[in-house]
Every structure is written in structure tokens, then in C-alpha cells.
Amino acid sequence: MKMRGPIITLIVVVLLGGILLLVNLARTPADSNQAATSSVAPVAAPAQAPAAAPPKAADPKAADAPAAPFPGQAKYTGRTEGNNAAIAITVRDNKVSAYLCDGKAIEGWYKGSVTDGKVDAKGKGTNQLTGSLTDGKLSGTVSAEGRSWSYAAAPVSAPAGLYRAKTATGTTGWVKDSNGQVTGLTNDKGAVKPAPPLDPNSAQAIEGGD
């Protein structure tokens, strides 16, 4: 009877060991993977760069800014691009008179007005003159005889300027610049020839609107 106690104890130990072995075998690899995964610290997502500021829209007021105003009365002389021809432009009370001349064969008379600081004058056929002031100087485009040029003209005072003389059969125009150089042509019944020397006593000084 004394041997039954140890035997029972041994049987209980064996049974517990078997139960623990079965429990360990019943654990799935997924459980192990899950435990391993849960033990790894999460990696922080990279910080996003701040969004770039949208480009500033162009100021429509700057594009629509009016050109510099013209004086009540002024005259300008200059040359076209390439020094091809002389040009004289006179302005009075926003009225414009102008003359283009190369001293050889090309000339053009123009008449128009100044609106919002911009010159717009028309001539014979499709001849046209436009311009505006920048730092007191006048520049723009002019066309004559089917050709077109850009030009630049500076303000001048008498005796420089635009002159004209008329006869029964023709008209002569002269451009006199601030250096005293004179460029002119005579158109007599459609025939163009170099103008005679400018005589201020017989030629009329042309102002804007004349």
C-alpha cells in the first residue's frame, strides 16, 4: 500500500508532461510569425515636403497702364531703323501731323491724334504711323510705299521740326533735326525728286493738326 503514492505521482507528472507537449505542438507558425511581427517597431513614414506656393498671377493693371501723356504742344525728329529715313512728328492739343522722307524716293504724310498717350496717324493708302512716349522720347512704327520700319524720335525745338511748301502742282516736305541736318523731297504731279534747300521764309512750319 505504501508504493501506490509514488506511482500515482509519477503517472500525474507523465500526464502533465504529455499535455504540455501537445500544447506546444498545437501552436501554429502563424502564431510565431505574428509574435515576431508584433515585436518589430513600425517604421515612420517619410515627411512630405511642403507644397510649393502657386505662382503669382500677372497684375492686369500693369499691362493696361496708360502710356505717358504728351505735352500740349511738342515736336520730335528722328530716324527709322537702319537710318533709312528721317521722320518728324508734331503734336498740338492731341492732334498729330507727321512726315517721313528718305531724301531719295520714299515719303509719307500722316495726320491723326493722340489717345491715351498713344499716337495713331494715317496717310495715303495703307500708310500708318503709331507711337508712344518713353522717358520723353517717341518711338513706334511707320509704314510707307508698302514698307514698314520702327523709329525713334527725340523732342526738338525751333528751328528744328517739320516744314512744308505748296505750289499749284506739288508739295515739298522737309525734316530738320536738332543738328541742322535737312532731309526733303518734292512731289510734283506724282513725280518725286530731291527737295531744294529749305528756306524758312517761304516754307511753313507744321504743327500738330495742320
Overview of this protein structure:
By secondary structure, the chain is α+β, with helices and mostly antiparallel strands. It has a domain at 73-205: Lipocalin (Beta Barrel). The chain contains three helices and 13 strands, in the order H-H-H-E-E-E-E-E-E-E-E-E-E-E-E-E. The protein has helices at 4-26, 29-39, 60-63, and strands spanning 73-80, 86-92, 95-101, 107-115, 118-122, 128-134, 137-144, 147-155, 161-166, 170-176, 182-188, 191-194, 204-205. The strands form two sheets. The chain has an eight-stranded antiparallel beta barrel with strand order 1-2-3-4-5-6-7-8. Strands 12-11-10-9-13 form a five-stranded antiparallel beta sheet, with no helix packed on it. A hairpin with a 2-residue loop joins strand 7 and strand 8. The protein is rod-shaped. It starts with a helix and ends in a 5-residue tail after the last strand. Mean pLDDT is 82; it is low at 28-43.
Features:
alpha+beta; Lipocalin; 5-stranded antiparallel sheet; rod-shaped
**Sheet with most strands: strand arrangement:** 1-2-3-4-5-6-7-8
CATH architecture of the domain at 73-205: Beta Barrel
What name does CATH use for the topology of the domain at 73-205?
Lipocalin
- Proportion of beta-strand residues: 35-45%
Q: Shape from CA axes?
A: rod-shaped
CATH class category label of the domain at 73-205: Mainly Beta
Distance between the termini: 151 Å
Distinct helical segment count: 3
Number of strands: 13
Portion of residues within helices = 10-25%
